[in-house]
Amino acid sequence: MARFMNHTVCLASALLLSAVLGCGESTPTLVPLTGTLTLDGQPLPFKSLMLVPADGTPGHGAGGYSDGQGNYQLRAIMPGALKDFPGCPPGKYQVVVTEPQIPLSDASFADTSTQDAASDEPAPAVMLLEMAPKKQVKGVIPAMYTSNLTSPLAVEVVEGVEVAKLELVSK
């Protein structure tokens, strides 16, 4: 009986030790990646972009949106994460550019830390409507860029390179 208890204690200790050692927040290496999204040399504002891992690149890639000047900043896609992780894991990616699910405007990129902190009141619906863009230009993205199966745009993310100009062409 003592021999059985000794094995049980050893097994329980090993399981506890492996659980404790395995309970750290493990974030993969991320490269901060910013840049400009253009179409035929002109900034492409308010578009959604995603870096889809090419064969052999682990992880889920990264995504982001271009602002009113076509500038973007990518965030790693981490299923189950409770916070954003700026950057993208190193590797090779196909670039997919699409219209965003919800309309974007300059107000979408406004710094929310400058809002009146004394008020917990949500913004009135009228203000939200005023912040919405007056006219959304749709359909300017050439169809080939809207799928990772057809997009000719590829990028390699490597440590030390933090800016990538993503240039789309219409023809």
Question: What is the fold's blueprint, element by element?
Answer:
Elements: H1 2-21, E1 34-39, E2 42-43, E3 48-53, E4 62-65, E5 71-73, E6 75-76, E7 91-98, H2 125-131, E8 154-157, E9 166-168
Parallel strand pairs: 1-9
Antiparallel strand pairs: 1-2, 1-5, 3-4, 3-7, 4-6, 7-8
Give a description of the structure.
With 171 residues, the chain is α+β, with helices and mostly antiparallel strands. The chain has a domain at 34-108 and 125-168: Immunoglobulin-like (Sandwich). It has helices spanning 2-21, 125-131; strands at 34-39, 42-43, 48-53, 62-65, 71-73, 75-76, 91-98, 154-157, 166-168. It is globular and about 40 Å long. The chain starts with a helix and ends with a strand. Residues 7-24 and 112-137 have low confidence and may be disordered.
Structural class determined from secondary elements: alpha+beta
CATH class annotation of the domain at 34-108 and 125-168: Mainly Beta
Strand order of the largest sheet: 6-4-3-7-8
Topology, number of strands: 9
- What is the CATH topology of the domain at 34-108 and 125-168? Immunoglobulin-like
> Separation of termini?
80 Å
Query: Average pLDDT value?
Result: 76
> Could you name the ranges where pLDDT drops below 50 across 5 or more consecutive residues?
7-24, 112-137
Q: The biggest beta sheet, please?
A: 5 strands, antiparallel
Q: Given the C-alpha coordinates, what overall shape results?
A: globular
Q: How much beta, percentage-wise?
A: 15-25%
Order of helices and strands: HEEEEEEEHEE
* Residue share in helix: 10-25%
**If classified by CATH, what would the architecture of the domain at 34-108 and 125-168 be?**
Sandwich
Q: Report the radius of gyration as a whole number of Å.
A: 23 Å
The number of helical elements comes to: 2
